[in-house]
Amino acid sequence: MVRDKETIAAISTPMGEGAIGIVRISGVYAFDIAGKVFRDPSGQRKRKLRPWGVRYGSIVDCRTGEYIDEVLAVAMPAPYSFTREDIVEFNCHGGTGVLTKVLETVIKCGARLAEPGEFTKRAFLAGRIDLSQAEAVIDVIRAKTDSARRLSLENLKGGLSSKVSMIRESVLGLLAHIEAAIDFPQEDIEVLEIQDMAEQAGEVISGLNSLINLGKSSRIYRDGVSVVLAGKPNVGKSSLFNVLIGKQRAIVTHIPGTTRDIIDDWTTIKGVPVRLVDTAGMRKTEDLVEKLGVEAANRQAEAADLVIVVIDGSCPVDDEDKDTLFRTVDKPGIIAINKCDLGVKVNENNIPPYAGVKKIIQVSARTGEGIDELEKALGELATTEIKDAGDNPVMVNLRQLEALENAMRSMEDALNILNSIKTTDLAAIDIQESLFWLDQITGRSASDDLMDKIFGEFCIGK
Amino acid sequence: MYDYDIIVVGWGHAGCEAALAAARMGANVLLTGSGWETIADMPCNPSLGGPGKAQIIREIDALGGEMAKIIDHTYLQIRLLNTGKGPAVHSLWAQADKKAYTAQMRKSLEIQPNLTLRVSHVERILINNEKEIDGIETEAGEAYRAPIIILATGTYLGGTIYIGHESYSSGPYGQPASVGLSKILGGLGFNLVRFKTGTSPRIARHSINYARTKEQPGHELPFGFSFETPGTRKNQLLCHLTYTTPETHNIIRTNLSAAPLYTGAITGPGPRYCPSIETKVMEFPDRDRHQIFLEPETRDGETVYLGGLSTSLPPDIQTELVHSVPGLEEAEIIRPGYAIEYDCLVPTEIYPWLEVKRIPGLFTAGQINGTSGYEEAASQGLMAGINAVLKLRGQEPFVLQRSQAYIGVLIDDLVTKGTQEPYRMMTSRVEYRLTIRQDNADLRLTDKGFDFGLIPEKRYQMFKEKRMKIQNELTRLKTTLVPGDKNTAKLLEKMGTTPIQTQTSLADLLLRPEVDYETLGIVDKNRNELPRDVLLVVEIESKYAGYIKKQMTQIERARRLETRRIPRDIDYSQVYGLSREAVEKLSEVQPDSLGRAARISGVSPADIATLIVHLETGNRKRKQDNGDNDET
Ligand SMILES: Nc1nc2c(ncn2[C@@H]2O[C@H](COP(=O)(O)OP(=O)(O)OP(=O)(O)O)[C@@H](O)[C@H]2O)c(=O)[nH]1
Ligand SMILES: [Mg+2]
After folding, report:
1. Interface list for A 114-153 with B (CB within 8 A)
2. What pTM does this model have?
3. I want to staple A134 with a disulfide (CB 3.0 to 4.6 A). Which of A187, B265, B511, B617 is the partner?
4. Counting Cβ atoms within 10 Å, is residue A271 exposed (0-12), middle (13-18) or buried (19+)?
5. How far is the CA of A258 from the centre of ligand 2 (A)?
6. CATH of the structural domain A224-386, one choice from 3.40.50.300, 2.60.40.770, 1.10.10.10, 3.30.565.10
7. Which residues contact A17 (CB under 8 A, 6 or more apart)?
8. How would residue B486 be classed by pLDDT, with cut points 50, 70 and 90?
């Protein structure tokens, strides 16, 4: 893996501040990684970023190709950078959610999340920072580590710690069974059968999985509630989007199929932070670009917390409207009957019963009619979302999420071995790795705990 | 002016290996012990090897030590354990003949040039005005002078034996304890801790009713512990197994008031992996039986060690206890079990090359460093012997890394973390188990042993030949391609595996779980006949290539810190930004590398980062002072 070459990445502007945020990547693979996520304005992948050039373009998810944000990319080759390594900086639109997304995809492409103060430390070790500043460097490292630790301690008081500890306990137990059998083959200790081990591994995986999901949902706190505008072309999604965020961000024309990509922005609605997403109108189309846009729209609608289904109230409800309603049936949300200034031809009876329980509100993006009612209803739904997340007080930051995901992946490897070649000492390597990642969250060291577990659980000794 | 280059005190397993290694490297060595018959004795279980320990014995052998060769020549029975698990954890185990082992070791010592043996009881360590080692003084008032001493006194150091309500000062087997030595060490400002271990009763062989026990035969194997051993000994002895009964457990429960472990007489912690039968019964009340291994101590002697029945109950209760076990109803106890408490050094006071930090020239090895087990002791003795000679020559110490050897893990754990109980090697302590195995100990360490002059030329040639064969075969497997044609498809089906679309290397086929080296022969007609030990390594290295690579990456990741040295004269209290706890711990342990520093509990990643910056600052200052200013 690229991992051991230690290309690091982090958000290098303070969280939640400023209109522009910077994600910085440093190390031998910085340019490679940047190349995987950066696209020029025509959507092309750039094989090589021009050193020192400032390039306009966008960041996409390196796995799904999904658009994340438009950025300015700056490439600084070694040894003329801050750390004297290759560095790429993405100047993003800011908003913690977007920055985190950019950072996430960079990490997926092989960078490692930088430790607190690591850029400064590298800069110092590379001779970039003057000797007289050494103490200042240490201060940076200490301050950042200490505040990070404080944060994680607060975090550990909450639900994450106890949940991770519970999972860790079963991982440890599983490992103890394997290790005890290896180290004490002459003892008649009752260790688990391979199938039972596999079953336990499976439980750990699903435990980790639900923790990861829980953690992801907790991001509502940080990222706000995501709300998607969905509907067939030309119903006025982009118009509503612009009204709700209070600026002319999305292009509006009378031509159906205007919006072809995902556009999102941040706003607060009735005091709740919301990430509003405008999408391409949902319809069957032969146009390749629009088709991709529609697919992305479907994905967005699926991933969103809430949905606003927009229907043109000046025409009867047709199959395309019904299709949108059908697709979003499981999502909590609102049905907005738009263009009510043109006279309303649609009422509740025209909405099919499978639309789910969604409040129906008549609005006009043009006159502003009903917008306040829409915001109010949206605010209420968003508050409920936040409250739901609040009942699961599991706050997971990106570092912890990375650790949880690594722990799960290693456990899956272990399960794979237990199911196929059934060699427990090989599985132990993966289980140990899984434990290592969990301990990145708990801050404990497994080796002593493992001994305790082995001797506590089994009667061993001649 | 010195009588010897090196004096080794104590001729248990550590002392013997230390003295032999040092003498073989050309030092003039005196080895002292307190009784002729206690040379390389096994006062506890008469067995060697098993998981973790077998690997150590193989490593001792690769470095030119003695243990493997002697056990191979003298064992009563040998078995390969863990064969149901992956080959990385296969472990040899042998029932030893303790009398034969002692005799053989004595012979090795006697014929060794540069080595003098002397029965004597050391009373005092002589220190000169410069606070350096100057020699020893014995109980009889003799003085021997040497600049280096290796202390390997085992349980003799301040030993107290407990049995029932009785307790008395003693080493094992009624040998006198070195009380004076503890005092001297204490006077030098050492922190001593007290550990405890137990032994089982020995019973008379003729009084055992073997019909009521279970037979445990040995294995026929094409190898032994030593590289030099081609196969298994003839005439292996049968061993036997029996179990405790509910009655046994009752006897223990009703007599707890007479058990020193439960009356509070014994305070030192005992090893958790070797609990007394009292502890087992009390801590695991659900178990209705525990194993008792009938371990013959010698081939034709009378004594049989009751493995698993370690106890310090009064002798009459021990008799009752033993008689409650099937097969032992009529057993005569020759020697009751006992618990022994003894002094250890706090091993964090020792450098990784086993020299005591506060007294240059004093090395310690074995139980005195807080370990338990013959193998653990022997390996430290060997390392201490080698390092003592390197010190004499003014050469860099020899330290094995955690990624190189079980011995490296053992010593690193001791000197970095210390230990709360007698330390026993276990494979689960080793993070790179798949890359450091029993089968590749020779590949890992023989070069080192040869460099020290501990491996004879002839054996080294044999070793190099083996290594070459392994390399050649691994390369051949990687470069030999099998075509993806119909014929091959048929053959692959015969092998019980799926067909290939394009031509594929033998090595890649071997990666498939269902294919092993033998079945691979179906598509690999041109292979040469290879010796078994070569095949073993080839098969493991190629079958587990993916995992080995994974582990190598981890090792590489760790190496960056391991190779960053910390100067010995560093004053942690002067390092800006270190936490108080880190200053304390680092000053106590004095780690020689950043990797070791990072393993100390209480030293955080931020402390390590701080330390890195500090070291770099020092480097740059030195460079500036030397005038080669390459700063921007
Ligand atoms: N009269 C009236 N016209 C509206 C209203 N909202 C939007 N329109 C018009 O409807 C047309 C389409 O509006 P858009 O906002 O681009 O619609 P859209 O749903 O984003 O369309 P696509 O991006 O093509 O899917 C434009 O000409 C708008 O001016 C409204 O409330 N009243
Ligand atoms: Mg639009």
Report:
1. 115-118, 121, 124-125, 127-128, 130-131, 134-135, 137-139, 141-142, 145-146
2. 0.75
3. B617
4. exposed
5. 5
6. 3.40.50.300
7. none
8. confident
